[in-house]
Amino acid sequence: MTYGTRIATAIAVIALGIPAVSHAQLFTLTREQMIELTAQNPFDRFPDGRPKVPDGLIERTRGLSAEEVFAVLPGKNFRNQFADGFQILHPGRRLVGRAFTVQFMPLRPDLDGVVNARAKAAGFERMTNQTAIDMLQPGDVLVVDLFGQGENGTIVGDNLFYYIMKATKSGGLVVDGAIRDLDGIAEMEMPAYFRHTHPSAIGNVMISGINIPVRIGNTTVMPGDLVFGDSEGVYFIPPALVQQVVDNADTIHIHDEWTRKKFDEGKYKSSEIYGSPKDPALKKEYDDYLKKRLEEIRKTYK
Amino acid sequence: MTYGTRIATAIAVIALGIPAVSHAQLFTLTREQMIELTAQNPFDRFPDGRPKVPDGLIERTRGLSAEEVFAVLPGKNFRNQFADGFQILHPGRRLVGRAFTVQFMPLRPDLDGVVNARAKAAGFERMTNQTAIDMLQPGDVLVVDLFGQGENGTIVGDNLFYYIMKATKSGGLVVDGAIRDLDGIAEMEMPAYFRHTHPSAIGNVMISGINIPVRIGNTTVMPGDLVFGDSEGVYFIPPALVQQVVDNADTIHIHDEWTRKKFDEGKYKSSEIYGSPKDPALKKEYDDYLKKRLEEIRKTYK
Amino acid sequence: MTYGTRIATAIAVIALGIPAVSHAQLFTLTREQMIELTAQNPFDRFPDGRPKVPDGLIERTRGLSAEEVFAVLPGKNFRNQFADGFQILHPGRRLVGRAFTVQFMPLRPDLDGVVNARAKAAGFERMTNQTAIDMLQPGDVLVVDLFGQGENGTIVGDNLFYYIMKATKSGGLVVDGAIRDLDGIAEMEMPAYFRHTHPSAIGNVMISGINIPVRIGNTTVMPGDLVFGDSEGVYFIPPALVQQVVDNADTIHIHDEWTRKKFDEGKYKSSEIYGSPKDPALKKEYDDYLKKRLEEIRKTYK
Amino acid sequence: MTYGTRIATAIAVIALGIPAVSHAQLFTLTREQMIELTAQNPFDRFPDGRPKVPDGLIERTRGLSAEEVFAVLPGKNFRNQFADGFQILHPGRRLVGRAFTVQFMPLRPDLDGVVNARAKAAGFERMTNQTAIDMLQPGDVLVVDLFGQGENGTIVGDNLFYYIMKATKSGGLVVDGAIRDLDGIAEMEMPAYFRHTHPSAIGNVMISGINIPVRIGNTTVMPGDLVFGDSEGVYFIPPALVQQVVDNADTIHIHDEWTRKKFDEGKYKSSEIYGSPKDPALKKEYDDYLKKRLEEIRKTYK
Amino acid sequence: MTYGTRIATAIAVIALGIPAVSHAQLFTLTREQMIELTAQNPFDRFPDGRPKVPDGLIERTRGLSAEEVFAVLPGKNFRNQFADGFQILHPGRRLVGRAFTVQFMPLRPDLDGVVNARAKAAGFERMTNQTAIDMLQPGDVLVVDLFGQGENGTIVGDNLFYYIMKATKSGGLVVDGAIRDLDGIAEMEMPAYFRHTHPSAIGNVMISGINIPVRIGNTTVMPGDLVFGDSEGVYFIPPALVQQVVDNADTIHIHDEWTRKKFDEGKYKSSEIYGSPKDPALKKEYDDYLKKRLEEIRKTYK
Amino acid sequence: MTYGTRIATAIAVIALGIPAVSHAQLFTLTREQMIELTAQNPFDRFPDGRPKVPDGLIERTRGLSAEEVFAVLPGKNFRNQFADGFQILHPGRRLVGRAFTVQFMPLRPDLDGVVNARAKAAGFERMTNQTAIDMLQPGDVLVVDLFGQGENGTIVGDNLFYYIMKATKSGGLVVDGAIRDLDGIAEMEMPAYFRHTHPSAIGNVMISGINIPVRIGNTTVMPGDLVFGDSEGVYFIPPALVQQVVDNADTIHIHDEWTRKKFDEGKYKSSEIYGSPKDPALKKEYDDYLKKRLEEIRKTYK
After folding, report:
1. Over the range E29-47, which residues count as b (16 or more CB within 10 Å of their CB) and which as e?
2. For A136-191, how does the pLDDT look when each residue is reduced to its tens digit (9 = 90+)?
3. Which site in B76, E22, E95, F86 is 20 to 30 Å from F120, CA atoms measured?
4. Chain F within 8 Å of A7 (Cβ-Cβ)?
């Protein structure tokens, strides 16, 4: 049985809700469970039920900053979606893609035995980091809870990093844990956020979930969240809020343009212009500018 | 419907494997799932499948130290069962009981909605820390993953601590998070291990699992594990290893007795006696002593 | 000129608003400034304008816990009044008294020269920790910002601690810095909260303010605040809220009494009784109990 | 009333010593107070009394390193003028300018009310970070005590950073707190030193002083200090020592030149040349070189 | 060959300066080397050259506090003799005794082979923590550099702790590392200072020196130093300064007595009495008191 | 006496085993001691006995990564040879060279006196950081234990860094401590690993050993170890394992080449190719590739 066949079988197995793969925490969610947990998703879904934020929105998100996500999420009561404190592989490059989540826990032989028995029943040799990596799709960002481990918490070295880059089309990696082969990895273009680097291989851990809700820092990440990273940290955006975030960002960008133009004139104190202009004439000037520019920008999104 | 009726219904629901409560991570395990995950348990089980280490073994464990657990577990490849770095309410008093696990995650309104919908379907008003606390049994130790939170990570104050003490018959509490009302709690006898204290109430979190595998520090805890705490930290002992741990501890206790008796004689350097006596005559003296004392002790275990 | 005379003169000088002592940050506030900054104080004041929470309320506060202060302050938008992370000299003993604040900054000879010139003009030899300590009144708690220093950040050793205990009638000490002579100090009964201990003497710092607003951790402390410490940390309560805090605490105490009485009956799940009883009959029982007990307690406050 | 008029009025108010603005800590210093506190300043002053280190000296300082400041200050008993542990926006670019200080404290509604009442009396809408930012002059470095806050401790985002860059002619920013919009800010040339970045806006704090002495790490900073930053950290140099620091640095630069020239010859062990040459002939060679080069350099300072 | 014979031989070997044991760092010092390194020792020595502070002085030291050591050592340019940050087994009990030092380093098989070959040549089976422990004398404090290790850095458990207590007559233990069996150890009376506790056994380390200079925190400890611990931390006092420290402490004790007596009178501000009395009459009163009390105390030291 | 003469004399003195320089820890090892401690060294040695890994192997090591060292050392029971947590001067440039070790300890005047007396006896003025630096050879990496000090733990500034770069031909520097003059040093090409930077000069420390075993983080470093640093940290490789490390790295490099070539084909899941190909045909393809490429590479090493 080739790998392709095996994974197809596994997906079929999942789709059929066969018990061996129906337990969320130690393997994954059924399609029905995934849909229930992400019921607010307004977009298409992958065969396994994971929300699929459209490519067009992903591209528009690339122009954002963390502040522009912050401008929307807390107001919608999503106050725990930003994680920071990472080492960032390429601080100048944005990370954008759909969350593919993996959860590890400290190795415990009795549980690990169950996990591997289930994996075997689903056609895999055993459950390893590569089992998850081999499921990645173009546009995915691999999001891994390795509970902050350095030594032995190394999700990938340069070879598997290379594989992920190819498989996700440079989607990206966020690991609350470590990577190895930093010098080799630094030569590749895919964005990555990690806590540590260490020359050791991954070990003394077991996979406890694939595409289940995971915790990264003080955030809860759902499979299918839009992952957005800049030089400050990483935002996990629920699919239902993506459209609003990118639309609102257009306004912020225009506001920034206008504000700096005014500052360049050198005639105003900051408080006369920013947050919003105090003078009614200036306020009108800004409103007109905003309207015109929004129209220009929106035209490009057709 | 009284609480008693509701919880009975809920248990029945669980036993029947009705879908609304069958998703491991966001609610709990079915009895079948619990049995699969704890297949090596040699003892009876609670109605929900949780292993029930016998009361007699729990009592024998009360005479142990963390070192005596350490003497067995790593050798059986359980290397990640000890957690430390806690504040300990009563350092001189042992914590011993059966793990009842609860997992929290950072609040996320979309997921929290699903959790509460499921709770409602199972007859609860909503899912809170008290939903879990109300399920505790005599001999239980409440083990809570609140991911190290201080402010807002306070699983209980003195009133609910008092309730837990009554419900578990002073079983105990281990929280990778905080408690509040420390002064009030300090007057009660139940053992407790916590990371922080804070006057705030619990908030900005949601329950993501009851009696599922949880991570406390670098350990993986299973519902039904025997929880053992002394002044160094907490051990989570798989039921399958409990008998061996307590039996082996008898030998260690006798070895300690004999060693100190010899040291008291003042005739020997430490290396002549300890780890094991070098001199064949001494070795025989020790072996005889061990045999005799083991027989005496074992007689008391009828 | 005896010390008594000198300090009287200094107070007179302050009362007259003479320029040499009118700069807040490098010396102290005039009476007028103090009154302006603490305008909401509903109580009497010391001659220098510092609010004087009445002794009776101080005594009632002694029965509180940090949670009972927390029950009131955040709701009044005072969200930054609790500081923790201290070593506590006597964890079982409450700290209660009026804040007398002192601010130190890293020594800088040019500024220190100005401070000492002003001190001399006011009749002091030079400005030291003892200058401030000698101004303490019965019921005061000395609150010191030594910006977390250990070595050289030792506000007092056992002799001056003894003096403060006598002068404040065991009011107390809170220092975001250190003390020395811990063994000697541990034998005295006055409550104390500190970050470190170190055998060195205070040094490499200068006083930059006496009875001005100071920062302790993430709190802003005003002279005259009611300082309340338990085994969790320290609350700085604005005088205007003290009455409400202690009154509300009576209700909490009664609620605790009733809740535990109910838990003792062993008939209820925690959620049937706590936070508030769900059953209307129980609710009425509680309301009657509360009313009766409040009357009993309030009678004792005449 | 235009902004210009308002600020002029405010300065007039300050100059007249009107009580509402005479308290150092909760607003600012009068011109007289500023002059008293910075009495050793040998240079001109701004209208509000703040020392104005001449532009020429500022330019010469740009060629220094922290070690060359260290070579002078501790010897003059200024041992607490260096702060490190910052994130540095452009590590390769020197920060040089005159300190404009701002102090924040944790928000406390009663005090914040007083601050804003005073601000209103002086013609401002309310007291915010922009109130201070709008007072900046060319050559200023904004030095902000935000007591190390990350979330909510963000003094500016990219728009206000842009304004500061324009207003100070790229003077700079040092904040014991955070900034937001790091990616946007990173594209601008102004030097900046900060503890954290966070997408949140500034909040839960209040301004407690503008151009008063502030503490940054273990340093005391005075308004008008010459702020010097390199890739190691930030030095706050009292105006009275600036001339000596830059003059002495000339000697150090020449010493470095000569030392490396000698090392390049490859004939000497380090200890024969450095700290100072042991051989009398070499010593003379160095002395001659120093004299000649000093003359050359000093000529360029006309 | 009994242990006694073997160790006698080993000491003889050392005394003869036989090469196999002459290398300081990986075994120990010869008597000659020890004497050279501790040349300022004014007291007797052990056979191996280690300074032997007399028992009488050790007893007098028991009445000291860290501050009284601090009063002498920095003034003699010994500024690095105080270590803190320890967990203290019995905070109320003083630690006093002669330093017996042991240094560990991370295990490296090639070096460990050399160490063990040397140990074998000197008549030991191999070099372990017990090799050093078996050399302890009454009045010794075992001072161990285990470079701050927790797991595997456990110098002893309760059995060897018991042995050390017997062998040193409750001298004590200072370990920059860990102990195990905390509950068992806590029942014994010997003072102990340690960084961590952990249930693991010592491992992954090797002994690199016995009775050589070692580093504990930021101190350098010499074999034979007088080790003094109170609830703040540990002082390592060079033998040459012990007499001066205890003599000076007498004066400090009397000064404390007199100061508090004066404070008890309630007539004085602290600055009139302490540091030293300002009033000439009071100064004379103090001087007379000091003289009288010193005579009384010194009489007891026959 | 020129420096050259003096150092020659010193080496002669060492070679003769004259007592003044025979104590390992407070000065250095004799040639005999060095040979004993590094007996497994398969290569030539320096006159003082330090192993001299050949230049050719050093060059081959330059192409490695930390992971390739990790692939060999733990398997040979060298588990403590990797140190990380450093600031790295030039993260993209490999550090490779022979360890020249220096150990500092906190200053203690009595011991420092002995050290300097010995230094004088060996013809040096006194023992300073430059005494060690002047002994460096081309290809050396200076490895310094300054026990993590920042302030006063600055082994060199830019002048001595320049000297070391010249003397070692850009070998490198690893200091468990600090450097000063970071901006000046950053312009030079020599690799450097350090914990901190600080403008202060080295002070309050003393040299306790040159070319003795030292501890850097959790590693034990021997003089003559091959020091290898990449962007993750520093490996100290025992000479006896260098050949095996570089030979094995050839295989890893080829394995990486082949793996990525396969990944580039886009036909395989990662687990079909990596760690080793599952399909026998692919396995053979890889084996043939490996053989061919190894031959090609090995040819270049002639």
Report:
1. bbbebbbbbbeebebebbe
2. 999 999 999 999 999 999 999 999 999 999 999 999 999 999 999 999 999 999 99
3. E22
4. yes
For residues F302 and F293, what is the distance between their CA atoms, to the nearest angstrom? 15
Number of helices followed by number of strands (H, E) in chain C? 11, 13
The owner of tokens 């992920």 is A164
**Amino acid letter, F198:** H
Task: Please tell me the distance from the alpha carbon of residue D219 to that of residue C204, in angstroms, as a whole number.
Answer: 11
Q: What is the mean pLDDT of residues F172-201?
A: 97
Structure confidence at residue F18 (pLDDT): 29
What is d(CA C145, CA E14) in angstroms, rounded to the nearest whole number? 56
Q: How are beta strands A95-106 and A140-145 bridged, if at all?
A: parallel
For E209, the enclosing helix (H) or strand (E) is strand E205-210
Residues with Cβ within 8 Å of C90's Cβ and at least 6 positions away in sequence, in order, are: C189, C191, C192
Q: Which two tokens stand for residue E273?
A: 């009495």
Contacts 24+ apart (CB under 8 A), F51-59: F51/F98, F51/F223, F51/F224, F51/F225, F51/F239, F52/F98, F52/F224, F53/F98, F53/F224, F53/F226, F53/F239, F53/F242, F55/F139, F56/F301, F57/F226, F57/F242, F57/F243, F57/F246, F58/F96, F58/F97, F58/F98, F58/F139, F58/F226, F59/F96
pLDDT at res. F4? 44
Q: What is the DSSP letter of D25?
A: T
- The per-residue pLDDT for range C1-34, each reduced to its tens digit, is 344 444 433 333 333 332 333 344 467 889 999 9
Placement of tokens 């050589």 in the chain: E212
Pairs across B and C, CB distance < 8 A: 70
Mean pLDDT of chain E: 91
For residue F145 the two structure tokens come to 């234990």
Going by C-beta distance under 8 Å and a sequence separation of 6 or more, which residues neighbour residue E95? E141, E172, E174, E191, E192, E193, E227, E228, E229, E230, E234
H helices of chain D, in order, are: 3-15, 31-37, 55-61, 66-70, 109-121, 129-133, 158-168, 182-186, 239-265, 270-273, 280-299
Q: Binning pLDDT at 50, 70 and 90, where does residue F124 land?
A: confident
Sign of the dihedral defined by the CA atoms of residues A221, A222, A223, A229, in that order: negative
Does A158 touch chain F if contact means CB atoms closer than 8 Å? yes
* Cβ neighbours around D59 below 10 Å, total: 12
Q: Which residues 73-132 in chain E show a CB within 8 A of chain F?
A: 76-81, 105-111, 114
Helices in D62-143 by DSSP H: which ranges?
Answer: 66-70, 109-121, 129-133
User: What three-state secondary structure class fits C209?
Assistant: strand
Strand partners, E45: E51
Give residues 35 to 54 of D whose Cβ lies within 8 Å of C. 36-40
Q: Do you find a cis peptide bond into E184, omega within 30 degrees of 0?
A: no
Return the bridge partners of C216, or none.
C219
Phi, psi of A232 (to 5 degrees): -90, -35
The packing angle between helices B239-265 and B280-299, to 10°, is: 130
CB B294 within 8 A of CB B254: yes
Alpha carbons F136 and F167: distance in angstroms, whole number: 6
Contact flag D110-C240 (C-beta cutoff 8 Å): yes
Could you report the predicted ipTM of this complex, rounded to two decimals?
0.91
Among all residues of chain B, which has the CA nearest to that of E129?
A: B271
